[in-house]
């Protein structure tokens, strides 16, 4: 029975923390401030609050302010600008080439951004599908709903899948429903729901 490899995108397949995330964060705060006509400081606090309650700024904006998710995602993820921060890696390409089985990307990012980043990394040929925040009807990982929706779309059972992620909360859900889990992180703590830990993606082979 062939395995399905489910890869997160940001900070798993490439480094998003150093330049991409700060830029997106700034754009999101600007958007909230402008849209709700509040100060940057208040916008920042509101986003913090929505993270705690909903796991994402967008979910809070949809629930409480009726914000159009497409508008929000397009104005906060300028794919053309953000792709410039991406560094191609032959080692990454080589790793993906050697991994046997179906490979997909499952990200909380919007589709236009995910595709632009994957193309900039020159790895689009290794993935049979990209599941984005739109695929889960704007319910982000680690929600159970998001995982179940992706499994239904894949037509697979959880035990047939291996989740490769940098985020512990997302791996916890994956483990709970029966997926194998691989953490991409430099932290060394033993965690029950992490099957294997690697410090970078190229260590998969």
Automatic annotation (TrEMBL):
GO BP annotation list: nucleotide catabolic process; pyrimidine nucleobase metabolic process
SUPFAM superfamilies in the record: HAD-like (SSF56784)
Pfam families: HAD_2
Molecular function terms from GO: nucleotidase activity
Entry-linked InterPro entries: HAD-like_sf, HAD-SF_hydro_IA, HAD_2, HAD_sf, Pyr-5-nucltdase, SSM1_domain
PANTHER family from the UniProt entry: PHOSPHATE METABOLISM PROTEIN 8-RELATED (PTHR47438)
NCBIfam families the record matches: HAD-SF-IA-v3 (TIGR01509), Pyr-5-nucltdase (TIGR01993)
Annotated protein name in UniProt: Pyrimidine 5'-nucleotidase
Source organism: Candidatus Methylopumilus rimovensis
């Amino acid at each position: 029975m062939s395995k399905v490899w489910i890869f997160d995108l940001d900070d798993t397949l490439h480094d998003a923390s150093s330049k991409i995330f700060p830029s997106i964060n700034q754009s999101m705060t600007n958007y909230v401030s402008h849209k709700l006509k509040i100060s940057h400081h208040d916008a920042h606090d509101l986003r913090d609050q929505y993270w705690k309650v909903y796991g994402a700024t967008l979910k809070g904006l949809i629930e409480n302010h009726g914000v159009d998710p497409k508008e929000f995602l397009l104005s906060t993820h300028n794919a053309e600008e953000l792709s410039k921060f991406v560094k191609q890696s032959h080692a990454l390409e080589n790793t993906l080439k050697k991994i046997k089985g179906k490979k997909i990307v499952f990200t909380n990012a919007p589709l236009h951004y995910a595709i632009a980043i994957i193309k900039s990394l020159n790895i689009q040929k290794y993935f049979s599908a990209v599941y984005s925040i739109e695929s889960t009807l704007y319910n982000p990982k680690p929600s159970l709903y998001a995982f179940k929706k992706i499994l239904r779309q894949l037509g697979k059972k959880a035990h047939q899948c291996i989740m490769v992620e940098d985020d512990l909360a997302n791996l916890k859900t994956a483990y709970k429903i029966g997926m194998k889990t691989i953490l991409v992180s430099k932290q060394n703590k033993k965690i029950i729901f992490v099957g294997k830990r690697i410090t970078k993606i190229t260590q998969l082979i």
